[in-house]
Each structure stands twice: as structure tokens, then as C-alpha cells.
Amino acid sequence: MKLLYLVPALALAQLAVSRPQDKPNNKAYEKYCNENKSQGTISTNSTQIAYFCDSKAPVGKNSVNASSPTSCYVACKGNGTDCDTAVWDRNTGLCWIGRVSGERTPAEGYMVLSPDDHGGKNDTTDSNAHEGKNRTDGDDAQRSTCQGEQQRYKPVDPICDKNDRQVTEVKDQRFYLACSRRAPNLALQPNTYDSLADCMGRCTNVTGCRFVTYEPETKLCFSGDGDWFLSKPSADGNFHSAFKVGG
């Protein structure tokens, strides 16, 4: 008789474990987005970040892993003038960075983050869209913006001397260059490598590798398997680093 109750109990327990609200990024999300708040500002390092809950905005295809909205915005800020908006997904921990090229749209579990409220317009306030007015001029402008973004985010050569804080590509894997920076507690890879690009190539073949640090003088290559930002990288002119974006 007890077995008849045990099976449903186990099923309920499994459902409880897999509920969306139990995902690891939930606490970071609900710190800012909850029943009482759907948008606001975050203060970090003397910078005011505007955020919008359950929203997305088109910012391109470049993505990094981020465990919180603030670390997602740090990735955007680290991209210099090329980035004005970040979009964070609490379900996957992915963070998309770039320049916004359209309107915010509803998307459960996502957050749009931007300085000075640059995170796209809210489509529910666009009277032209709701009234069916001619938007040819706006469509042309958006198309031009998208073409510009494609050119802006075309991968550069994996050379730190001239391409710091830009997206590069090695073996069909995109990396974000973080020159003159290194992370602690890395795994030394076997052999030596002639360039940072070769070191990144090694990372594409190592399971779990998320970023690399390269020492040009010794030609040694080090790898890390966690979150680049949470690893607390520091400035060091003797090393160059790069972390994976978009997978």
C-alpha cells in the first residue's frame, strides 16, 4: 500500500527540483525583478544602470556567460564605445552585448541593461505601430543600423597590439580579447605556443575551456573553465587573455 503513495511522491519531488524558479540565477534576477518592480536602476562603480525586466532588445549575436545582471553589464562596459546595451537571460546565464538597434519587446526571464536608458524603446508606447502608420523611413534607418552593426562586429585579427577589447575568431569560435590582463589559478597547457591565436586554438579543443591567458615571453598557454569576470582578472602587461563568446 505504501508503494502506491511513494511513486506520486517521487514524481512531485522531481517536479519541484526542475521548476524554473529553482534555477541558479534566480536569486540574482529576483534581486531586481519581482512582483513589486519591473524596472529601475542599479548603481555600480559610480555608474547608474537602467534595467528593464522580462524584456529583450536587439543588440547582435555576441554573447558571454554572466552569473548576474551586473557582471553582464561589466562585459558591455568593457567593450568600450562599441557597446551601449546588454541583454541577460537568467535561465541560461548568457549575456548579449552590443549597440541596440531596435525596440524592447516582452521576454520572460530576460533583462535589458543600459546606461542612461539607452535600452531600446518599449513597443507598447510606439503609437505608429499601433495606429498602422507608414514606417518606411524608420525601417530604412533600422536596416542601415543593422548593416553598420554587422561591419562593426566583424571579427578582427587575434593580435593584441592593435585589437584590444574586440571580438576575434579562431577555428570558427569567437573570442573577446582582453589584452594585458590575466586571471589567477589557471591550468597550464602542455607544449608551447607561438601566439595568442594558437593558445586560443588550443582552447577550442579542450573540453570546458572558457578562456585563456597567454605569456608571449615564455610562449606558455593557460586555460580557465569558469566565468572570466568572476575569476577576478588583473592588469599585467606580460600576459594577454581572451574569453569565448557565443558558445
Automatic annotation (TrEMBL):
Q: What keywords are assigned to this protein?
A: Signal
Start and end of every Apple domain? 192-223
Q: Where is the signal peptide?
A: 1-18
Tell whether Signal is among the UniProt keywords.
Answer: yes
User: Pfam families under this entry?
Assistant: PAN_1 (PF00024)
Matching entries from InterPro entries are given as: Pan_app
Keyword GTP-binding present in the record's keywords: the answer is: no
Write out the ranges of the annotated region (Disordered). 111-151
Point to the regions of Basic and acidic residues compositional bias.
115-142
Name recorded for this polypeptide: Apple domain-containing protein
Say which species the protein is native to. Answer: Aspergillus nanangensis
Q: What is the lineage of its organism?
A: Eukaryota, Fungi, Dikarya, Ascomycota, Pezizomycotina
